[in-house]
Amino acid sequence: MSIKTSGLHHVTAIGGDPQRNADFYLKTLGLRLVKTTVNFDDPGTYHLYYGDQSGKPGTLMTFFPWKDAPTGVQGTGQATTTSFSVPEASIGWWKRHLAAADITSSEVKNRDGEDVLTFRDPDGLTLGLVAHPQGDPRDPWDNGHVPAEHAIRGLHSVTLSVSKEDATAEMLTDGLGLTFANQEANRLRFTAGEGGPGALVDVLVTPDAPRGLVAAGTVHHVAWRAPDEATQAAWREELVDSGVNVTSILDRQYFRSIYFREPGGTLLEVATDEPGFAIDEPLLELGRALKLPPWLEPNREQIQRALPKLDLPSENDLERA
């Protein structure tokens, strides 16, 4: 491929109760709710976007939360860990913070020169906090729940679990333009662009692990960045010409998307950086109101009746009380 991604755009997972999901990611992890909308393919379900102040690509974790969703199975053919970047000196603070919230976390481990702490969200989704020794220049969302000096800077990496690595590695390097960085036992690391937090993917080879089942507590897809629609369209043509089964370009209101599966089974997306989350509400008010795309707006009353009420904290805006 002649086109290469610069890094992660977002990770989308399946959640359970929407209120519990919002409470955890807003209050415990200290992210900002940058968009409250619905699953465009199933508008009776929320699509909640969490990120930094403006929801920049590379900071976004999003959820389809179904209150009565069955529990999924983490295994091969999935992204099994989503990791966030935190300051190097903050891992100890986070371990104490999670414990105070009754969240069990692992011991701090060092991998590839980085301190790593893993834990699960209320639906069982595996998450990580990683402190990169060279730091992370991205600014955090400072909403008062997590002090800015310890706050999450954005996505760090994802881990894909596969039973065999060769075809997946080929897709990452040839299809997405990533570079193989190193291997430690059964874990292979690949980097996008200049590398560093937000531009990393690990491939964990576990041939004896069960096949994953996407439902609550699992990742639905992993999205990679394209700078604009023209690049995305050219990228899609290259993927199709190489024999990849790719969707048409879909309008996700805040970006354009194409989807395809890597050979190990994980659903991948290429999403545009443009136009962003401030196209239908001011930056100061991101996430505070239910936003619908034009083609769903005529059904607003029906959609709102079907959605459970969300009680969002006042800190979800810049001018907090």
UniProtKB/TrEMBL annotation:
Record GO terms (molecular function): dioxygenase activity
Keywords, alphabetical: Dioxygenase, Oxidoreductase
A Pfam cross-reference name: Glyoxalase
Keyword check for Amino-acid biosynthesis: no
Parts forming coiled coils: none
Protein name stated in the entry: Ring-cleaving dioxygenase
Keyword Oxidoreductase in annotation: yes
SUPFAM superfamilies, per database record: Glyoxalase/Bleomycin resistance protein/Dihydroxybiphenyl dioxygenase (SSF54593)
Species the sequence originates in: Amycolatopsis minnesotensis
InterPro entries for this protein: Extradiol_RC_dioxygenase, Glyas_Bleomycin-R_OHBP_Dase, Glyas_Fos-R_dOase_dom, VOC_core
Segments forming domain VOC: 7-132, 154-273
